[in-house]
Amino acid sequence: MSRNPKSEAREFAVQFLYQSESERLFHFSEPHFQTFVQHLHVAPEIQPLVLELVRGTLDQEAALDRTIQEASSNWKLSRMSIVDRNVLRLATYELTDTETPHRVVINEAIELAKKFGSAESARFVNGVLDRIAKTT
């Protein structure tokens, strides 16, 4: 069974966001993106969606971080794992700036947290995104 292209794009987007933050690159860089898609063999048909997701997330990172911080009152962004932080940023971007149904965004984010995060990541991400979804 083939994977959903949007799910696959989200997975690559989280990896790109993780890599960007790890390299302390806090803005979108076309050369960095092109190197990423080449090295990870991102299929040409999903590259535009990955690009849209990462560019939207990085362009609005400060606003997304404020939204996440408000919804996670007991957790500072700096204390969150880099995976959780970037899953939350991507999902918050989708919740606030796309037409994707909230339930789909939250379910996809939970799956990303399970795949890339810690044992507690999925529950944490679910709780924060549920609060954000109720206000958007």
Model description:
It is a single chain. This protein is mainly alpha-helical and 136 residues long. It has a single domain, classed as NusB-like (N-utilizing Substance Protein B Homolog, Chain A), CATH 1.10.940. The protein is 72% helix and 0% strand. The termini are far apart. The protein is built from 7 helices and no strands. It is globular. The mean pLDDT is 94.
CATH superfamily: NusB-like
- Contiguous low-pLDDT stretches (5 residues minimum) are none
Kindly name the structural category: mainly alpha
Oligomer: single chain
What is the percentage of strand-forming residues?
under 5%
Task: Give the integer mean of the pLDDT values.
Answer: 94
- State the major sheet: none
What is the overall shape? globular
Fill in the CATH topology: N-utilizing Substance Protein B Homolog, Chain A
Order of helices and strands: HHHHHHH
Rg over C-alpha atoms, rounded to the nearest angstrom: 14 Å
Percent in helix: over 70%
> What would CATH call the architecture?
Orthogonal Bundle
- E-strand count: 0
